[in-house]
Structures are given as structure tokens and as C-alpha cells.
């Protein structure tokens, strides 16, 4: 789906209304298919921007929030042995995992904007966002895992692959 065309077709008033609708609490809605599509587009756009960012900039230099240091420290305190290179969905979504993640996530309420918004997260950090390699997670889970991947060098694979592709294209000219 080309989200740019969908958004531009809404016009300024429609896009403003959509942005406002997405800022309301979930309790304000039932199961509205149009709203779900808008949420999916927003999550997809966030994922696309982030992947382009780690492809273009050395991940270790990225700052995703003003609270990166706190997020990283608290994440590694709460999940010291969690393997983040290839995530096991059960370690994010099972009932036991949710009990462990809940206090971690909730400590960032009021600290990180939209900490509990739905966001797409890559399972294998060496791969792009695909249906098989993507899971829906909260924004703070995304930040915790991706900040850690950036700091610990796991996202370097994506950056290096893109750098080699750009160099190869330059060499062909």
C-alpha cells in the first residue's frame, strides 16, 4: 500500500482529523476498520523511517529519545540475558513475558511520549521489516530493544550492508 497517496488523498483537513483521531485513547473507539488501517499505516511509516535511519547513519551514534541512557540501563537491569539479535516472540508476548514487561514499560509513562503505542519490531535485526520478521510491540519495547541493538552493535549489519550497496553503485558509475 502506498501510504503517501492515501494520506495525500485525505487533504489537509482529513490528515489533521486522522492525526487527531490517532491521538485519542483507545477506549474512545470500538473496532473501527478505518482506524485500524490508519494505525497500521502509522506503524508502517515509523518502521520505514527507522530502517532508513539505521541504513544511513551508524547506529551507535543514533539517539532515539531524550531518555536513551535510562531506557538502556533499565532494560539491561530488567532483561540482562535477553538475546536481542533474534527475538523469540514468546519472550515478548507470552503471559509470563507480559508480567515481566509490564512493570518495565509502565515506569516510562510520562517519561517517553507514546510509550505504549503499537509499533512494529523486527525479530531478526539482520533483516528488513517483512511479514515473517515483524511483530507488534509497544513503543517502549521497540525503543529498549533497538537502543540496545544500536549500542551493542547488532544493527551494524544493516548499516554496513547499505553502505556496501551505495559504494557498489558509485563504483559502477
The string of secondary-structure elements, in order, is HHHHHEEHH
Strand portion = 5-15%
What is the CATH superfamily classification?
yst0336 like domain
Write down the CATH topology. yst0336 like fold
Give Rg in angstroms.
Answer: 18 Å
**Structural domain count:** 1
Largest sheet: number of strands, sense, barrel closure: 2 strands, antiparallel
**CATH architecture label name:** Orthogonal Bundle
Give the termini distance in whole angstroms. Answer: 32 Å
Name the quaternary structure: single chain
Structural class: mainly alpha
Number of helices: 7
Could you please describe the fold and organization of this structure?
With 173 residues, the chain is mainly α. Helix 1 packs across helix 2, helix 2 (33-56) packs across helix 7 (156-172) and helix 3 (68-78) crosses helix 6. It is built from 7 helices and 2 strands; from the N terminus they run αααααββαα. The chain has one domain (3-172): yst0336 like domain (yst0336 like fold), CATH 1.10.3560. It has a two-stranded antiparallel ribbon with strand order 1-2. Residues 1-10 have low confidence and may be disordered.
Q: Could you name the key traits of this structure?
A:
173 residues; mainly alpha; yst0336 like fold; 59% helix; disordered N terminus; PBDC1_metazoa/fungi; PBDC1-like_dom_sf; Polysaccharide biosynthesis domain-containing protein; Polysacc_synth_dom
Offer a concise description of the structure.
The protein has 173 residues and is mainly alpha-helical.
Amino acid at each position: 500500500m502506498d501510504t503517501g497517496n492515501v494520506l495525500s488523498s485525505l487533504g489537509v483537513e482529513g490528515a489533521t482529523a486522522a492525526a487527531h483521531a490517532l491521538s485519542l485513547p483507545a477506549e474512545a473507539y470500538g473496532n473501527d476498520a478505518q482506524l485500524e488501517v490508519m494505525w497500521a499505516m502509522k506503524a508502517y511509516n515509523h518502521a520505514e523511517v527507522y530502517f532508513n535511519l539505521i541504513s544511513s547513519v551508524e547506529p551507535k551514534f543514533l539517539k532515539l529519545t531524550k531518555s536513551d541512557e535510562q531506557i538502556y540501563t533499565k532494560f539491561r537491569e530488567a532483561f540482562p540475558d535477553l538475546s536481542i539479535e533474534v527475538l523469540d516472540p514468546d519472550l515478548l508476548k507470552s503471559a509470563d513475558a507480559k508480567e515481566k514487561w509490564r512493570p518495565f514499560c509502565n515506569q516510562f509513562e510520562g517519561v517517553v511520549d507514546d510509550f505504549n503505542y503499537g509499533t512494529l519490531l523486527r525479530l531478526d535485526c539482520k533483516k528488513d521489516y517483512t511479514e515473517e520478521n515483524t511483530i507488534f510491540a509497544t513503543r517502549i519495547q521497540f525503543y529498549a530493544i533497538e537502543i540496545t541493538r544500536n549500542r551493542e552493535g547488532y544493527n551494524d549489519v544493516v548499516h554496513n550492508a547499505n553502505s556496501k550497496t551505495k559504494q557498489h553503485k558509485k563504483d559502477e558509475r
